[in-house]
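Q: Could you write out the predicted structure for this multi-component system? I'm mainly interested in how the pieces pack against one another.
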Amino acid sequence: MSNEARSSDLSLAERIDNDAADWLARLDSHGLLDDQPKLDQLADSHDDFQSWLNESLSHRTAFLRLQTAWANANRLSALKTSNRDLRSQSSSWMKPVQAISALAAAIAIAIALFLFAQQPAITPETVIYAYATETGQQRDVNLDDGSTITMNTQSNLEVSFSDANRRVSLENGEAFFSVSRDETRPFEVDAGRGQITVLGTQFSVRRRGDVTEVTVLEGRVLVEGEPTPFGRPSSILTAGMIAIVDDGGVVREIVGDSAIDRLLSWREGKLNFSGTPLSDAVAEFNRYNDTQLVLTDDSIGDIEIGGTFTATNVLAFARLADTGLGLKTRTNGSVIEISPN
Amino acid sequence: MNVDEWFVEEVLPLEGSLERFLMRNWGVTDDIPDLRQDIYTRLYKAALTEIPDNTKAMMFATARNLLIDRRRRSRIVSIETVMDFEMSDVSSNEAGPFQTTSARAELRILQDALNALPDRTRDVIYLRKIEGNSQKETARILGISEPTVERHVSKGIRKLADQMGKFGINVMRPKAKQTKAACGE
């Protein structure tokens, strides 16, 4: 396809990738990739491309890979604003863009490119603030609109507000949101599989691996899962409800106020259990403490426990396992082992 | 979901994990593009029959089998080495450091990838992708021919894809309320 001499030392994968890239560049030059077309559509529009595509499945996978990366690179257009500013700085000694000569344009581009290459940081159109908590730490974040976020242990999130919306991305962990009402700007939380949209309300979001849990204290919350060929699963929650979002979609459960309070007791630095298996309780404690609890025998994991504990007081919990449940505890460095008696 | 969609949404985001796995268990960097392509093709072919329930597991099983095949075929390998490999951790629970990458981090990865391009290629990608110029305009601005622009696009996309691949090539997910800014999610 290309006129370049190909070194016979190139591996097969290199040659296929080169050809796929050449095809992509060719199709892109005609604007055929602009609206993310399906591969079969593209192939229909160009016979030679279709022949190449059909020669081997590896041609197909190689092309799909590059096409996706190319589409992904569209994000780079977010960097445009800052460079527009650079252009206007240089235009004080240049003619306006329309009248610009090729050479002057080249100089303007060179400056923009040079500065772009020197840029140490990204300046997207919206400023993003990142917050993080360590093990056992909680912190409050006060937002410009009056909303507050209470972050739980081991959590990471990013906040970006613009004129059109208020967005938070929960990367890891758990946070409680108290959102002030603003009809002109929906408040959205992107938490992995689950996306939450509210106008004004109080709820918490927790990411546990691939699962996202939403707990509503007050108001109405729209929770959406990931798009599927059948549409996008979603559910509206009101106070006293929780939603679990996993790869199966969105499941909503009415749990009642006392269960909600239990799930949110971490905001007071407490963990509240009721009929909770020991293994689950131990897993919870381990989120908040560097000293980790370990059950040496699976059988004791099923023991049900209840009560309210200070999240960071792992020693107290271990003592309870000892005196209250009659189990044996042994401290081994930064680990407390709990064993059957 | 058709196979193309599955490939893009489920396989490509795992490229980073796959590369790390291949580096750890094969070690020869130059072989990775071939290995990867072979694995992708095998996965795609299998998916034509039936799309797997657990893409990640299947990917690593395929990768593992491929490496075992290749080791056996290369014949220089002693029995011990094969045993070591089979015992090593080939868990499909690969959690790379970038498993949850934020929009901002992805943009930075892209920016770094762009900056790593050779000058002229970067100019072209910048003018086409960031400024949104047509191939014709780009050629005019830089004073080069259109086929040359195309060549740079071709080169650029290869390098960008390879860079992105280290972290998994993720589909840009359209969101219900996305604003005009194409700036990540």
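A: Regarding packing and overall arrangement: Confidence is low (pLDDT under 50) at residues 76-101, 173-185 of chain B.
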